[in-house]
User: Fold these one by one.
Assistant:
Number 1:
Amino acid sequence: MNINKADIPEVAPTFRLQWEEVQDCYVVLYPEGMVKLSGSAGEIMKRINGEQAIDSIIKDLETTFSENNLEDDVIKFLEVAYDTGWIRNKK
Amino acid sequence: MTPAGLETKSDVKPPLWLLAELTYRCPLQCPYCSNPLEIAKYQNELSTEDWVRVMQQARKMGAAQIGFSGGEPLVRPDLEELVQEARHLGFYTNLITSGVGMDEARVKRLKDAGLDHIQISFQASDEELNNFLGGTKTFQHKKEMARIVKAYEYPMVLNIVIHRKNIDQIRDILEMTVELEADYVELASTQYYGWSRINVDQLLPTREQLARAEIVAKEYQERMKGKSRIIYVIPDYFENRPKPCMNGWGAIFLTIAPDGTALPCHEAGQLPIDFPNVKEVSVEEAWKDSPGFNHFRGFEWMKEPCRSCDEKEKDFGGCRCQAFMMTGDAANTDPVCDKSPNHQELLDDVERIGKLAEQESEHNVAEKPLVFRNMKNSKKFVAEETETN
């Protein structure tokens, strides 16, 4: 899929993002299932709030972690997240 | 992964799934119900306070998913209260229901209570067979409820238990799920435990039926990609390797029966093993320390051919209940595995049932009547058991 960096993603209503203390990670919950997110995936997902556009999420991550060139990794993850239906663009 | 035999109590990982069987009361009488035959024995259901305590304890350990199941969980008037508490604790809340006992007002109340997901079961895609199998007239009501569930923006899972009586309707069933806009479809092949086990002669599909159904299921999986996730698993009686039952004994799943018995799976109550009750011990004690939950943890308990098998960490020797039902010893290899010395008996049984099915369909031979799941039939089983003991 083509990702436009001006798009504003949100977590789809049929999924839930949540911090799990015991697992020590963010998880995506859905009917009868749960996916544990890696540290970096969790950092991306928790910034998806239906308010920030993708380019601003990337900038935010780069600032927070003092890194450049995170764009490719973020886009790669977002493709998966759109594809599995975890996130969608806010209309 | 811990090497065989070195598993200690401190290595026990927390449960992720809490299956809350709130009641065995149910307005339906499906002859393939996975509840125990002895449902009539379960008179004392846990109270609201008991369930709240159980949920708090399980959540604290790390359980993230809760399934409100039964019987029919809608029978419990405190369902909304329990859902609200579960959601408040941070559980992802699943309601597993027939839809009977539901109306729009209740769907709304459950939504307000924070319910995440409703799974509705259908018995078939045509009214007559649906109502016959369920033993009640429920088909139109279920369809109506499915539409309401969708309107309230729940993710919708439709569950259809598949067996010989409805497998040839699989295309119509899938069309129905398309019409109802299901997000997930579970074509759940009947597993032969509980009531379905005593009705296996009438319910097990034939190899030919399975082959035809698989083609149709694949067609719809392709067609509905991105819109609806269709899950179809064939009955394990037709496999050569057993299923990794419950992902391992006491590994992820915790079932609490209506009377508070804590079980590693909802079928395990039939095993000759003592299981703890959450009226007497905490969920943590039950899960970590009880002999019942530790019985088949790790690999030490295994016999041959499992013990030296290089696939034991993949399937854990299969299903303990199936091993018990078919061989009399729950520590044996699940006879579904073709390495099991009992595998041939299973093949013979499948062949025998296949011949029965052929006689029914081609020569119009009357079949044994189905035994419906209800309290009257259950009382008979309980009485027979008492006599033999």
Number 2:
Amino acid sequence: MIDKQLEDVAQALSGIADGASVLVGGFGAVGQPNVLLDALGEMGVRNLTVIANNAGFEPDIGLGRLIGRGCVSKIICSFPRGSSTFDTFYKAGKIELEVVPQGTLAERIRAGGAGIPAFYTPTGVGTQLAAGKETRTFGERDYLLEHGLTADIALIEAWEADRWGNLTFRGSGRNFNPIMAMAGRLTIVQAQHVVPLGSILPNDVVTPGIFVDRVVHVPCGDPPIAKVATAQGGTK
Amino acid sequence: MTAGTYKPWGKLDIARRVGADIPEGWYVNLGIGLPTLVADHIPEDREVVFHSENGILGMGPVPAPDEVDTWLVNAGKENVTLVPGAALFHHADSFAMIRGGHLDLCVLGAYEVAQNGDLANWTTSLNDRVPAVGGAMDLSAGVRNVWIMTTHTTKDGQPKLVERCGYPLTAGKAVTRVYSDLAVLDVTAQGFVVADMVEGLTRDELQKLTAAPLHYA
């Protein structure tokens, strides 16, 4: 019987070593595998390379806390702002930063998980972030060569999981999670709900279990309320 | 007309102008900051679909305080709502929409716009702070129409519309139109072409506040 569910978070994280590369899902407060990140920090691993959209937010939560514990030596992300802990470590020269445009980051992860070693993209042509990268012209336009990205570990937050590792997500909690699940050599999921096999309808599975190695039940509840919305609105 | 007899458009005036110019049926990404104001200024009879980089098509108005769904955030990490017909998807699909030319428009802010459409809006220096690009390069390189909402000059009175960008580029030849607090300008093969300007402002005055030659259709 295939059963990817583990008893607790410690078991789910077992085997993660110093120097590992770790994909971390989440965008804003939604879809962040914070419980896994906190437990990883407690394990005392060092020299992690983290790949995430941001560099954490609150100093006491998730990625911010992992950085604060000195576990992360390099971060690959698109927007390392809003994290006082990251700022402190970066200014002190204690953490290396690679800034990647958000869409390039997503596609590098998708490509890595899909077995595509590299691809050409129009994003970043003629900018600082093109430095050292091959440029090629297709038709009338220039494109940059970007490389697929995989990692030793992917840490994912899902809404539902079953024992095969089939996943659903809630709200905007999908974000980087499904593509990171594909690109991790060991993909570990904290799931709000673990449900019986078959109760996620085949058409509703967002991440098929083939991409998932370990599931742990973490009913951590709703994300916190975001900062007060300004005028972001929508369709009339 | 003498100088000082014009009043710059306010933020909401600019948002209203941008909103009025977005055609029915367009898929639109609004950048963080000033551009988000546009969402509230789409004419009532028009259906426009708002996109967010983190995997939303069909973003709705800001929720009332007691109706917040904390599972929904926009690219600015604020809580938002969905309209009927909305769709949720992952980041790679979201940027496929952007890079693949499926979005009709993005509205962004700018530090500088050059007369050939070059855009600088992600960092003002090579060294002095943590560089952070987010989705700005993908949006400006990938979306068909890139409109800029900005003040015409910096707080120090320096022109933001220039012959060539001094700040690091976000994308080359990306901007198609600029909505400043003094004028609406199309970016053409000829350079900046003024489509509209604040009442009472003269062409000479506008030129003095612009570091690239202005043309008139």
Number 3:
Amino acid sequence: MSTTAIATDLGLKPAATAATASRSVSSVEVTDYDNRQTVGKIVVDNAKMICRGVNVYYGEKQAIKNVSLDIGANEVIAFIGPSGCGKSTFLRCLNRMNDTITTCRVTGQIKLDDDDVYDKSIDVVQLRARVGMVFQKPNPFPKSIYENVAYGPRIHGMVNTKAELDDLVRDSLERAGLIKEVEKRLNEPGTSLSGGQQQRLCIARAIAVHPEVILMDEPCSALDPIATAKIEELIDELRENYTIVIVTHSMQQAARVSQRTAYFHLGDLIEIGETDQIFTNPKHKLTEDYITGRFG
Amino acid sequence: MAISQDAHTVKQFDIQLANFRNLVLEMGGLVEDQIKHAVQALDDEDITASREVISRDQIINGLHVKADEDCVSLIALRQPLGSDLRLIMSLSKIVTDLERIGDEAEKIARMTVKTYDAASSPPSAKLLRDVAPMARLASKMLHGCLDALARLDVEKAVEVAQGDDELDQEFQSALRRLITYMMEDPRNIGHAINVIFIIKALERIGDHSKNIAEYIIYLVKGKDVRHVGMDTLVQDALAQ
Amino acid sequence: MSKPNATAVPTASRDIKTIVNATLKRRHAAERRFRWYGLLAISLGLIFVLLMFGNIIGKGYPAFWQSYIQLPIKFDAAILDPEGNRDPHAIENADYAALVRTGLRALFPNVEGRVELRALYALSSSDAPLELRQQVMAHPTLIGTEQEIWLLASATVDTFVKGNIDRQAEEDHRPIKDNQIGWIDQLQATGKLKQRFNTILFTSGDSREPEQAGIRGALMGSFYTLLVTFLLSFPVGVATAVYLEEFAPKNRWTDLIEVNINNLAAVPSIVFGLLGLAVFINFFGLPRSAPLVGGLVLSLMTLPVIIIAGRAALTSVPPSIREAALGMGASKLQMVGHHVLPLAMPGMLTGSIIGMARALGESAPLLMIGMVAFIVDVPKSFLDPSTVLPVQIYLWSDLPERAFVERTSAAIMVLLAFMILMNGLAIILRKRFERRW
């Protein structure tokens, strides 16, 4: 029996079948594209960072529009969204990496525990020691593996003796899951490692100063799937001790590593919620269109 | 109910999804026919038609396998998320239920063959009295949920789910009547057991149809309404 | 895709094939032609370079050899030490020229008459008595003995021996007379006139006598001048580049400074010389002709080059390294000091060395501050009057003697050798310290 026959049986016109078949479903509650009010619960019980009404301007252009969200302690929160949606910009506000851009202006409030990140009394050096960062492209210093990891503790004066520093370096490499691979070659240049190893070295370097929060800006975009899987596994392990904010272009990656997901669109925080809810049952039309690949 | 008319950026994904849905609908249509023909053959005491129904179940089984393949390949190749994910998961479950319904139709046909092929005399009409109304109810439910699936119509799905209670009551009362007949005259027992199998099959068709209706509600609304009370189901399904 | 399209594709591809084929020949021809132009340009350049080197080396090579005459010198105690008490003062002031004359007469006992004798004495250099004095002062035991000693021949003899005076020319038209030629032939025949390596070129200062003139004074002058230039311009240049590139706010003032630095690099070097004359010598009263002033002037000239090269080296450090350092909580100075500067250093050094090489070859601004004087003594400090290699070349190129023509080319060869050395150093530094990231 052909499809047409069934359609007739169902009391439908044959022509309508194809149309209906290509139609898709959505359970979204906000169907209005122009509604840019954040959907979902922005507040969490044990917040590590609290952002309220954050605006970011590059000169005249507003890159982030009134974004409020909480980042819970020991959670992995993923920022997703199309290119230019401001997710990286927002991430860089969290440890004031945007300060290096002279035209960049940030308003609103970002708090790390009880300290206002943008308060005059906060020194960026101290802030960045507390909020570490891992970048898109693995960027180890052109120095030895040991020196890469030892750099942070050294400049912050965290250790007094060589033995303490050795321990700290080994411990950081171990927590980054790299120690087995580099144990015998700590004095070789960090740049001699493979891409994935370099990125784990950068993570080891970041955790060597015992930060409270780690920001990751598309940490796997330059890596192959195996290296990516290793980083993802590492992120999951690190969650025990750190709060992790990850920006990613890969929705699958956000789904795999994060507990909560925030969707940004043209500088607005469109939707935030539990990761499985965002990826199975988003509440905003824009989120739905983005994650199902209907964008634009 | 919100329905996105937008196409995917990847057109091939749209085509694959549409093909998968059409396959499920085609399977639904076939299953519906099977029930119709099985019940008709029973009514007509037509063994040949029943045998045809039995053999046609293979086609449904084939479609079931094909649908599962499509489903696996869609998940593997497209990594669906959001409503696409719900659609594919729901359809894959609906396919299983449709295949079971097909099996129930086959069961009815087998019982028909068994009943009328035997050397003994055919059963009296009163034993078969409840089959026709129950078959009508079951067919209506199946048709309703296929309709709801084709239109992604939650209200229709709710209607189908609600219809299951009526069918269950019909089944209970038919069962009581058959027990009475069996107690009246032990010679009826053989035929009555066959009839019980038939009406049990019809009752199962209702259950499967209800499952399908629940999947449709999940698909459209994103809410799992299985194993909740009918009140919650209706409330969840129709909530805006 | 609809059916007509599907069939249209092969036709189109056939079309494109013929269309491309039609233009292919022309395109290849253009490419070949361009390659020929390139080859032509390069070979033209090469030919000029070879011509220049050939000319300079051909002219300058003989200057590294010098004629010496072996004379039997009788260290007569009556002349050297008439008192017999070995008084150094008396020995120093003795008539050594008489020893040379006696030696020459001993070789050619037949020569007589004032004119003939003067011609004979002219065979040896005026430096010969000084050389003898030096030897006697060093070894007073020589007095009273007779030694065969190699003494410097005069420049005319040297020029003749090197074949630069035409033997066939009329006697009046050549600086060397027939009888002198006869003696020279005789000396050569007996092996008493030989060419030896010209150490004087590297050990003595300038002189009016070509056979005694050397470049040591100019070399030391260049060394002191460049030392001042490097010590001044490198730290200042690097600091300026780092500040402008990493710390300075981007505003109208820094833009103005940037434009001015670029302009400074294009200012003609003679202007720096005038500036040096006006400011360092006339205003600050620093001594004329001193390497210190020369170094100051050349610093002004080299600074913009170092700053521009330094900034280019800094910008070539990838931003990811800066981000990594800042992300670790490094302060800006730590970021620059620990990461950016070490990575930019090879580039900065290369730029500086190339700037220094330019300074080494510079003569115009130094003319303005008096480093063009005739200075015989080798400078011993930053304040001694001195000249530099390119200026020495300029000075010698003006002199008429044939022997100075040789020396000019020889000095050019030395200067070029230093240039190549410095550029080679720049390349080695770049290769050695260049790091991958």
